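This part of the workshop introduces the protein records we will be handling. A record pairs a protein's sequence with a compact description of its fold. Comparing a sequence with its tokens is the quickest way to learn the format. To make this concrete, we reproduce a full record directly below:
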Amino acid sequence: MGTGKRLIARQAQTDLSDEAEAVRELGEQLGTTEAQVVLVFCSPKYDLNRLGRLLAESFSGPIAGCTTAGQLGPGGYQKGGITAVSLRSDELRVRNFLISPLAQCQAKAAEAAFAASATMLERTSRKSFGLVLCDGLSVAEERLAASLYQSLADVPLIGGSAGDELAFERTYIYHQGRFISDAASLVLFETTLPFATFKVQHIAPTRQRLVVTMADPALRVVHEINGEPAAEAYAEMLGVDLEELNSGLFAKNPVMLRNADDYYVRSIKSVNADNSLSFFCAIEQGLVLTIGRSTDPIAALERAFVSASGRAGEPEIVLGCDCVLRRMELESDGKDAAVGAWLARNRVAGFSTYGEQYNAIYVNQTMTAVALGG
């Protein structure tokens, strides 16, 4: 590459509303040099048919991305517009596999994993990780995550669900010049570069336990907790009236599921008319959950990044899938500017998601990420 660096990572950000002007500005910031991959995260308010064509015409090599609930880039947190990342390295190979329709996501995920594994076996000197981007309104993420991770054996996976700026109407992933729904994308990275996948959450478990006594996992609805209507039991544990439950309280006090020695966040979406609770991911009957409490977000980030740097060295880029609920909580506390600036200083690029994937598990209120050294 002639630069002395093993990896050249460039970021771009635009808030121009015209698709042609926006893509032109991205190209100016990324440069015209052919990259191994370009990742694009954008507002759903663009003419996505036109934007998809322009991206395919303007950038060579694999392009992957999705619509978002906001982006992360050189300016920190961004609402609207487009954020893009290009990665260039002789030690990097990237392929993109489409998984669709998501009603058949388990079978389609196995097919994609089989195709990916066939060539990974030919390149034993390289290690691999996957970035998974999924239609964020598909309610298929749990099955997709479990199927992909199982089929790919020991390949670490991170990922996020596409968003539509909290409209909750339709979300899209990008594949071969088109933005499409009812689909997911497995972006497989094979590399000899050092890397580390990790997750960050600033929610800590308390000693308050609850048992899910009636639930509909397919609809992501919990009807009863501890034998009582779910919303009433949850409000009682927080020490608030039922009428006080809102998105702010949900963000600061989500429930957590313990798996081995780690905790994973399960975020509440809303209270329903029958006092059941809708969640952003599936909750099964019989699970024992823990109430979580919000802690210092920057301290949590610093711990995670120190650990990742210990495995991958100083990162050239960190690709992050960051839950929109984290950003909303930060905004309500007036901390979003400080955290966004911290992420920008530490070379984080990515998007605000409707949910995150970490290996075989689908989570909320988390940032899943990969640090790439170079």
About this structure: The mean pLDDT is 94. The radius of gyration is 20 Å. The longest strand covers residues 203-216.
